Amino acid sequence: MSDIKKVVLAYSGGLDTSVIAKWLQETYQCEVVTFTADLGQGEEVEPARAKAEAMGIKEIYIEDLREEFVRDYVYPMFRANAIYEGEYLLGTSIARPLIAKRLVEIAQETGADAVSHGATGKGNDQVRFELGAYALAPGIQIIAPWREWDLNSREALMQFAADHGIPVDFAAQGKKSPYSMDANLLHISYEGDILEDPWNEAEEDMWRWTVSPEAAPDEPEYIELTYVKGDIVAINGKAMSPAEVLTELNRLGGKHGIGRLDIVENRYVGMKSRGCYETPGGTIMLRAHRAIESLTVDRDAAHLKDSLMPKYAELVYNGYWWSPERIALQKLVDETQQYVNGDVRLKLYKGNVIVVGRRSEDSLFDASIATFEDDAGSYDQKDAEGFIKLNALRLQIGARAGRKLS
Fold first, then answer.
1. Facing residues of 143 across strands?
2. Quick one: what percent of the chain has pLDDT higher than 90?
């Protein structure tokens, strides 16, 4: 501990990280630098400054990283159509590599000896933060208080806060401990409380970004998304930055009850965990991206990409964003996006994202060949006979040899 003179803490301003800031000061007798990232969580981040100052912290970093987050992390991930275990759109996972990157950069800028985070010893985030930090700064020291202290419940944290004069808003208001929540511009997650029983339905007032499909408008809304090399650059003809795109899609998706998810997932550390997620904009993005790809990406290139997607998603989920294999996969993914240009028209209606049109100057759809009408000789249907016989040859040989199929 005596080697630690200064620590950079990933600081949200909430209960856990406020307690950690004071605990670091007391336990390590060190100077604490706080880093608060605005990733579009929808809450003011400036109050974190006042809380940090109240604890005597001198170096306080509060940064708006929304554009970098969507441009350099969310967009590349959506080019891959990444989904973990068939459902989860990786909203928490994809924010961690950016936070890890800034943690180590600030440590280098301030001459800090270590970085620290508020992730628990049971979760995935400890792995994501630390793998990222080690990849970018191999000699960095990492302090994970949840693996060291004996404050192992929300009540213990609240008592520590009360004993040390740390203001905690929900405690002052006499409210019960809330769900464990994490939000950024891509999603908001909920864990804990009644959700710890997988049989319990989430309470309606838990959801913050979306209305229920039942309460969504009775009339559908049509939107058009414009793509350049796999990324959305405009909505309804209006050019937007990456963060502006996701902000607007969140608004539209939330309005129409799109993007709610309730799953039991397999954490990297080995346990199963039940969580609920709201990803309205991301749900729209995934459906639209697959639609424009269907028109513009070669069949076998698309199938290869799809076969690699589960591995890509697993790498993101498990914290390997900065690994050589994820970077190699990204290069392959990005190569497939060179002609993913054009427009997708969607209908949003009561929790559904319905693709109703797609067009592109780089389209591989040839109506003269695909038509059910007279194709004027563009395709000779007789050619299919030899194609089928050649592909059936090994099946016929196996059958003649008496090979059983069951």
1. 116
2. 85
